[in-house]
Amino acid sequence: MVRWFKPVVLLFLVTPAVVAGMPEDIAQLRRPAADPAVNRAAWDRLVAAGPVALMPILRAWPADDPVAIHWLRTAFDRIAAQHSAQLPVDDLLTFVKDQKSPGQARRVALAALEQARPGTTAQLLANWLNDPEFGPDAVAERVAAAEAATDPQQSRDILRTAFAATTDPQLAFRIAQKLRAWDETLDPLRHLGIIRHWQVVGPFPVTLEEGLQQTFPPETKLDFASPYEGKNGPMKWKAVAVNPADGRLDLIPHGVNPDDGAVAFAAATVLLTHAKKAEVRASAVDNITLWVNGKKLVERASEYRSMYRPDRYRCPLELPAGPSTILVKLTKTRPEEVRGKPGAAPKWDFQIRLIDETGRGLTFDQPEMKK
User: Fewer Cβ neighbours under 10 Å: the N or C end of the chain?
Assistant: First the structure.
């Protein structure tokens, strides 16, 4: 009698009214109210619905709302933890395999599946090298397998396959470095769609507030032949290239020192043979504003510093056939601090790359730049 008592009580608590109210509760959490009590009440009812709420939560996953995602994910996790033996594993597996489903929702579902069926992740990753969400995970697994392989040729073959599939910058450079042991001539910059050739100018000697708010000449007209007035005299555009080891461009080694100002600019031209739908991915230490063909696509301008994070800013765009101009404004807001690294040099670096609709580096050329 004791064994049957608990399941009966649970079934009794999940009333038809609770299940019927799920769509409203999910809608509430997808657009959280200002009053946390309202959201918590909807969260409690959703959790009380039990496993029947799991798939509706996943299918309603918000595109880009951290607060809404937090409410729905914690509800999902609580239900999955409380009903680990009653998960809809077949439905979860179908959802995880659907590449059109939101990536983060697929990860949440896979974590639940792994708890119910250990080994599911490894089995799926074996065929996910080109998956838009789990591709980097599958590549990382291949790299680990290559490192563990005792046969050098096997290790080399695994790394070649992994490099061809990877869309992750850090993994691509890591694999390329390993393959250089076999004299492999790989180009991770081209593979990732990283813009490698730039013209840079700066810094413009301004205060913090001016740097964030003021408009500077390169923003209104690009003229690589015209000098600008700097703190220590005229400033001219200078042709530079990114570091081939990581695809970043650090301005400081090229004489653009933030101690003399707070704003610098970088400009590049890319040439496409055909018009393309693409995505620009931007990374930078501190603030960044980015224009493509005169249209502002990225703007991160605040008084707070931010650390470098690969592919931090993303924006879809359409590039025409022929030349396109990319302009980047970089703004320092605080003196650089290198914590825990005595003697380490500060950096003022950024990276811009262009990818196609599959997440792979876009194919383009760059004209020669005068140094």
Answer: N
As a whole number of angstroms, the distance between CA 155 and CA 179 comes to: 9
Domain boundary among 97, 125, 153: 125
Residue 339 forms part of a structural domain? no
Q: Which amino acid is at 65?
A: D
Give me the residues paired with residue 300 across strands.
Answer: 288
In a domain, 322, yes or no: yes
Q: Is the same domain home to 36 and 153?
A: no
* Residues 304 and 328 grouped into a single domain: yes
Structural tokens at position 52: 């029947």
**Sign of the CA dihedral with 125 first, then 63, 315, and 311 last:** negative
Containing structural domain, residue 142:
135-186
Give me 122's structure tokens: 């490894």
Q: Are residues 117 and 156 in the same domain?
A: no
Total count of domains within the chain: 3
Q: What is the pLDDT along the chain (371 residues), one digit of tens a residue?
A: 444 434 433 443 556 666 667 899 999 999 999 999 999 999 999 999 999 999 999 999 998 789 999 999 999 999 999 999 999 999 999 999 999 999 999 999 999 999 999 999 999 999 999 898 999 999 999 999 999 999 999 999 999 999 999 999 999 999 999 998 887 788 999 999 999 999 999 988 777 667 677 888 999 999 999 899 887 789 999 999 999 999 999 999 998 988 777 889 999 999 999 999 999 999 998 889 999 999 999 998 776 777 888 999 999 999 999 999 999 999 887 655 544 455 557 789 999 999 998 889 999 999 865 55
* Stated pTM of the model: 0.78
